Amino acid sequence: MTNSIVNLSFIIDQSLLALLVIRIVYSCINSKLKKSHHALLTFIFLSFVNSIIYLIQKDQINPNLSHASVPTFFNLLIFRPVKKIHFGIAIILSIVIFIVGNQYLISINYLLCILILTNQALVLSNRKSEAIKLSYVYLLMGLDQLITLVIFQMENLKTNWNDSFLLYYFSFIPLIIYPLGLFSIHANFRRLFLT
Fold this sequence. Notes:
The chain has about 200 residues and is mostly helical. It has one domain (about 5-195). It is built from eight helices and no strands. It has helices at about 5-30, 40-55, 65-75, 85-100, 105-125, 130-155, 165-185, 190-195. Helix 3 packs antiparallel against helix 4. It starts with a helix and ends with a helix.
């Protein structure tokens, strides 16, 4: 994968993420942010924190931090309504998964996350027209988690993947899916967080 494409994608991702955080903070200051779609808000926050950690410590970052936290917080969608105790449980589970670092535990967490996001997309697609427009946001996030799981599994196999075209092609997919998911959150910001 060429460095210029990866660098351009990183700049686009960080710009979209920074704009989302600015919009959320502005909405919080004006007290217009509604209390729904907690998992997406948490995903945006965790992605922003993860990108800051990456920028500060590029060489020393442990990728299991992201693998342990993001799917765990997406799994908050199980709880209706989401309460503060659920965030505490998700933080504790993320820390346990990060410390243990077991590949199978992380994979099960990802699979549960993918099932929950797909279920949320299906539930929203069966509602009225406004909710249908939000279903593809959850579908894109589920697809992003699926691709991340596949890449995570491929990287954990004890094989030389430097010469692998499969990993090369799979590495391009998140460069498209992740910014597309962030852009869809931007496009549906008012429906998701304000009305």
